[in-house]
Amino acid sequence: MGSNLLQNHATTRTSITEYLSSLQFESCLGSGAFGLVLKATNREHGSQTAVKFILRPEMEGTEQKQILRECSFKTLDHHENIVKVMHTIEDVFTLSLINDILPDKLFTNAAQKMVKDLFLARLTRPMELPGVLIQMELCGETLRQWLYQKHDKSDSLVHHQQYAIVKNLIDGLVHLHKNKILHRDLKPENIMFSKTGFILPVKIGDFGLSRHLH
């Protein structure tokens, strides 16, 4: 990854130490090909947020583009059916910083802990690794989790939820298309409810495969 990966994507140039001191990391929400998503609370005003933590020793062209696409959504006008990206920061992470951000107590399963171990295995002399943090609004469950729930098809509330979910998705996609953006990876795992408890509206997230049409 280049030393200035995010320079053209409205990155707030905050030092990593200053950024970390403002947040209390509480749990690991999930893991994927690019890293971990953490739940954090702002120490000053108590608001909760999600932080995607990405460490890649050598970014290949395709991987770099995917991360840049997601970071670039910080500049997209806010819409209630799109997961808001609030802050991005690029820095070099040391072993002590990684352990501060990712203490073992955050991980509830072996798969998540394995991602951290892979990060540590990539550390090279002098024990540093370039990385990116993407701060986003904290959402609730995914649409996939909602679909796994047992629903009474005769329940009018279920019908209302189905209608609202479809309408929210259409509204979100219309907003993206007006901004000449194609998501290209719309699936239940990338659609989130606003708050825990399957609270509407739903929001579209994860723009790593998106395309901006010119």
TrEMBL record:
<keyword id="KW-0808">Transferase</keyword>
<dbReference type="InterPro" id="IPR011009">
    <property type="entry name" value="Kinase-like_dom_sf"/>
</dbReference>
<dbReference type="InterPro" id="IPR000719">
    <property type="entry name" value="Prot_kinase_dom"/>
</dbReference>
<dbReference type="InterPro" id="IPR008271">
    <property type="entry name" value="Ser/Thr_kinase_AS"/>
</dbReference>
<keyword id="KW-0067">ATP-binding</keyword>
<dbReference type="GO" id="GO:0005634">
    <property type="term" value="C:nucleus"/>
</dbReference>
<dbReference type="InterPro" id="IPR017441">
    <property type="entry name" value="Protein_kinase_ATP_BS"/>
</dbReference>
<keyword id="KW-0652">Protein synthesis inhibitor</keyword>
<feature type="domain" description="Protein kinase">
    <location>
        <begin position="23"/>
        <end position="214"/>
    </location>
</feature>
<dbReference type="GO" id="GO:0017148">
    <property type="term" value="P:negative regulation of translation"/>
</dbReference>
<dbReference type="GO" id="GO:0004694">
    <property type="term" value="F:eukaryotic translation initiation factor 2alpha kinase activity"/>
</dbReference>
<dbReference type="GO" id="GO:0005737">
    <property type="term" value="C:cytoplasm"/>
</dbReference>
<dbReference type="InterPro" id="IPR050339">
    <property type="entry name" value="CC_SR_Kinase"/>
</dbReference>
<keyword id="KW-0723">Serine/threonine-protein kinase</keyword>
<feature type="binding site">
    <location>
        <position position="52"/>
    </location>
    <ligand>
        <name>ATP</name>
    </ligand>
</feature>
<comment type="similarity">
    <text>Belongs to the protein kinase superfamily. Ser/Thr protein kinase family. GCN2 subfamily.</text>
</comment>
<keyword id="KW-0418">Kinase</keyword>
<protein>
    <recommendedName>
        <fullName>non-specific serine/threonine protein kinase</fullName>
        <ecNumber>2.7.11.1</ecNumber>
    </recommendedName>
</protein>
<dbReference type="GO" id="GO:0005524">
    <property type="term" value="F:ATP binding"/>
</dbReference>
<dbReference type="Pfam" id="PF00069">
    <property type="entry name" value="Pkinase"/>
</dbReference>
<keyword id="KW-0547">Nucleotide-binding</keyword>
